[in-house]
Predict the structure.
Amino acid sequence: MSPPFVLVVGAGPSGLLLALMLGKQGISVQVLEAADALDDRPRATHYAPTAVQELRRAGILNEMEAEGSFISNGACWRKLNGEFLTGLPQSTDPDQNPNPLLCLPLNKLNVVLHRNLASLPQVEILYSHKVTGLGQDDTIAWVQVDTPDGAKTLRAQYIVGCDGANSQIRRSLFGDWEFPGFTWDKQIVATNTYYPFERHGYDWDSNFIIDPEHWFMAARISNDGLWRVTYGEVGGLSLEELQARQPAKFKAFLPGHPDPSDYQIVNFSPYKVHQRLAKKMRVGRFLLAADAAHLCNPFGGLGLTGGIVDVGGLFDCLAGIYSGQADEDILDIYDSVRRSKYRTVVNPTSSTNIRLLFEQKPETALQDSDFLRACKAAETDPAAAADLAQAAGRLQYDFTQHYRV
Ligand SMILES: Cc1cc2nc3c(=O)[nH]c(=O)nc-3n(C[C@H](O)[C@H](O)[C@H](O)COP(=O)(O)OP(=O)(O)OC[C@H]3O[C@@H](n4cnc5c(N)ncnc54)[C@H](O)[C@@H]3O)c2cc1C
């Protein structure tokens, strides 16, 4: 069998989406996944409008809706006592808001992607295939892979590392510890929790609570009362220590100060929080996308949303090369454009939502934070609201402008 045009390493959301978009164009793709099944941990839930445009291009919005996706009514910022500071509302009417921010837990998005891929004969997903090394020459690229049948070498015209934060592709290209940026000294714990926030006045779907100790986010993620509660914790605690501290944390910061019998936690996962950007997103026939290329805290909308926008752009580049409409140089443009969108992310002093949550004094946050001041202005000034909405669109870039006419 001749090698596929594209080999994607990693069957996370970015790898599956890229395979789907390429496969729908009739392009042969092989996806290699180290695990024996899709990842089910509680991670991304919200997809900003820039990402939703790519999910629409992939043709899966209707199926996402059938899995329970919904249009969030917006995000607000509060003090620990629940006092509302300001918010960014969005219309939940699809006619008024054709490109909304959507909510759907990542495990459900993965199921939709996987189901769609199953109907594409030119896409093959190989589980329990762990990439361990790589190489390339002028004509082809290859990866060394550990498989249940022993070590193999698999080849393709182009190989895309969608293999997440610990990307083997990135480490093989640049070295194990070459991922410029920094890691916060605090950690976060992401939970999926059934709790009636609405009864405590939480009528916004996403709520960010500003507090030096008990900063957290509570966002409704389903229509049956499930909320994502992600909270800050001191760094260096073990899983057991975090679990032991959780009831006291919820008692201290959740509205209504509940006991464990008042809520039900169905997922509990601690995470370190990084802000990092790979040195390059293209090295010859190898490309990086999403978490393999950049990491961002999950409070600022630059996580998978940015990864999905990478994938849409990379799809246009690779499909353009495949059809003869684009030269290979378009991949250098991909590298420079996508990295430029992330430069500020690795600057520890840049203003990010996570910094706002634990650094601002809640009493004066509305005066001290440029971002909250802008949100407050947007409440009454449509031009200020339009400015904020435009800022979110800056992740996008149309690579087809570099096609030959
Ligand atoms: C608590 C939390 C909440 C978040 N919320 C949001 C949100 O609301 N919105 C948002 O946009 N983002 C959010 N994010 C970020 C988002 O979850 C990630 O950006 C996203 O999951 C990254 O997807 P990916 O496909 O790049 O990588 P991953 O999902 O990590 O997938 C990588 C895949 O590659 C496989 N792999 C790894 N190494 C190899 C190898 N050597 N060989 C073969 N396969 C390999 C892995 O097994 C895995 O399946 C959140 C993150 C966290 C932690």
